[in-house]
Design brief:
Blueprint lengths: L28 E7 L3 E9 L2 E4 L27 E7 L15 E7 L10 E7 L6 E6 L5 E3 L8 E3 L6 E7 L6 E6 L7 E5 L2 E6 L5 E3 L8 E3 L5 E8 L2 E9 L2 E5 L2 E6 L13 E8 L3 E4 L14 E10 L1 E18 L2 E18 L1 E7 L5 E8 L1 E11 L14 E4 L7 E4 L9 E10 L14 E15 L10 E4 L6 E3 L11 E3 L18 E7 L1
Parallel strand pairs: 8-9, 14-15
Antiparallel strand pairs: 1-2, 2-3, 4-5, 5-6, 6-7, 7-8, 10-11, 11-12, 12-13, 13-14, 16-17, 17-18, 19-31, 20-29, 20-30, 21-28, 22-27, 23-24, 25-26, 30-31, 31-35, 32-33, 32-34, 34-35
């Protein structure tokens, strides 16, 4: 094979170099450019009819093969193409579109180049007819745009013509998939699809539709026929539903409740306890927490000082040594192990010692001893760390502001008055640990619920005899407990209506309370 060393091959050419490697086999090297000191730096090989660019031996990026696509333009401006790869079939007999580039990748300048700027995007183009057109790009900041040339976010998908589903995730074998899309090209409506069918829509105005693409209210739920439209679950168990039947909407297992809070000194109550209003409206106090003041701090730079220290003196020398490496390559259908030997320069550090005479305790010389040769060096030591500037913050005291237009609810308590007309409902329990964000009450106190409408529970006792389903219930002389109402009419002291029979002969006496009671369902 001819060798060209330090020579100009040609000043102008149509075909600078032609290599015919017929019969050489798939491992034949067509072009091999070598650096006399470092070995092969570029090799173009025929390997199963593919080109291979191979660098030198080495780790990391040192031995990487590199292919540069470059422009000769001296003043690169926005939209200039720096390098391009086209995928095409130029000999396709159909001609016309068939011989055009069907796919391309190119680097495109995003700004005028300068000493401190080489902003470049990587563009991917494809087409089904005519020349490849841009489909996706990665801009100079790393944002990816699909269908849009100026991505505004990390991933930006855009189209001036696509409506319906345009992002799909799913199984390619069974067609089960989910997707995201939009209603119209000129809208900001968001649609979620399952199995290519729109199931939920969020309109640009914020209205959410489930089962409808045109929600007219903040939340619209639609179904094609009668049945449950919403269910309410706790630990995956359905506790209540809303259903429709024709033009009728039903609330199932429904209870309506109101807020209350405990006064200082009051304790939480058991579920179903009968409570009455105290007539005291709960004040709505909005609390603003205190802010501690902060003094200003002036910025200070870190302070260093130079100190002299000692260390053992070390002399660094360079030595040359031979390194041998092997690789296995395919040549002419055979695998050949090749050995390469190269001379490398290494640095060797030698600690310095001084030989001194060694004496015994009587002063007699008994030999020699090596001690370290020391040298001075300077080192920067931190004296005080840098301090960031801090702006002063004025202290603000906590405030409590009353909002009288938010005072709708009253405090409650148990009653020992039979047929008490102030009965309020039955105790449901704590809803939240504080009232922050709510429109009533003391922000720092928990919110409790009192059942007043629908179906819930009530504690009843035997002070007025057995209870039959359908009996009205009222307060009793025992705190927390209801009893059978004496009157058969619904009156101002009626709490609710019993849903089951209660035969007190079958109920055991509570050992702590020393009387009988039972928790039963009732409607208000």
């Amino acid at each position: 094979m001819a060798s060209l060393t330090g020579q100009s091959i040609a000043s102008s050419y149509e075909q600078l170099l032609h290599v015919d490697a017929d019969g050489g086999g798939n491992g034949t090297t067509l072009v091999d450019v070598k650096d006399g000191d470092n070995g092969t730096t570029f090799a173009l090989k025929l390997a199963q009819f593919h080109a291979e660019v191979r660098g030198t031996t080495g780790t990391g990026a040192t031995g990487a093969g590199k292919l540069n696509l470059a422009t000769a333009e001296l003043t690169v401006v926005d939209n200039d193409v720096l390098g391009r790869i086209d995928f095409l079939a130029p000999l396709e007999s159909s001609g016309t579109d068939a011989i055009l580039a069907g796919a391309s990748i190119w680097g495109e300048a995003e700004d005028t180049f300068a000493a401190d700027n080489n902003s470049t995007a990587l563009v991917f183009a494809t087409n089904t007819s005519a020349a490849a057109t841009e489909r996706m790009r990665i801009d100079s900041s790393g944002k990816v745009g699909i269908g849009i040339v100026a991505p505004a976010k990390t991933l930006h998908i855009g189209s001036d013509s696509v409506t319906g589903e345009f992002i799909r995730m799913g199984n390619t074998t069974n067609g089960e998939n989910v997707g995201i899309g939009k209603l119209a090209t000129d809208s900001a409506d968001l649609v979620f699809y399952t199995a290519a069918v729109p199931k939920m829509t969020i309109l640009e105005a914020g209205n959410v539709g489930i089962g409808t693409t045109a929600p007219g209210n903040p939340l619209a739920v639609n179904r094609s026929g009668d049945g449950v439209i919403v269910d309410f679950e706790s630990a995956d168990a359905v506790e209540g539903t809303v259903s429709i039947s024709g033009a009728t909407t039903s609330y199932n297992a429904f209870v309506g409740s109101h807020y209350t809070q405990l006064k200082d000194g009051q304790n939480d109550l058991p579920v179903g306890a009968v409570v009455s209003t105290t007539g005291e409206i709960i004040t709505c106090n909005l609390v603003t927490e205190a802010i501690a003041g902060v003094d200003s701090v002036e910025a200070k730079d870190a302070v260093y000082e130079t100190v002299t220290k000692q260390r053992q003196k070390v002399i660094v020398t360079e030595i040359e040594e031979e390194q041998t490496s092997t690789e296995i390559v395919e040549e002419g259908g055979k695998y050949v192990q090749k050995t390469t030997t190269e001379t490398v320069t290494k640095e060797v550090s030698t600690p310095q010692y001084e030989e001194v005479k060694l004496y015994d305790e009587d002063g007699k010389e008994i030999g020699t001893h090596q001690i370290q040769v020391m040298e001075d060096y300077e080192e920067e030591q931190l004296v005080s760390e840098a301090v960031e500037a801090v702006e002063a913050v004025e202290a603000i005291e906590a405030t409590t502001t009353n909002s009288p237009n938010k005072e709708y609810f009253t405090y409650v308590n148990t009653t020992t008055t039979a047929s008490d007309p102030t009965v309020y409902g039955t105790w449901m329990g704590k809803m939240s640990d504080d009232a922050k964000g709510h429109s009533f009450g003391d922000d720092d106190k928990p919110i409790y619920l009192v059942a007043q409408v629908g179906l819930f529970k009530i504690r009843v006792t035997d002070t007025n005899g057995n209870i039959a389903k359908g009996d009205y219930l009222e307060s009793s002389t025992r705190a927390m407990e209801g009893q059978k109402q004496t009157s058969n009419a619904r009156i101002n002291s009626t709490i609710g209506k019993a849903m089951i029979d209660v035969d007190w002969a079958s109920v055991e006496t509570d050992s702590d309370l020393s009387y009988k009671w039972k928790l039963i369902p009732c409607i208000f």
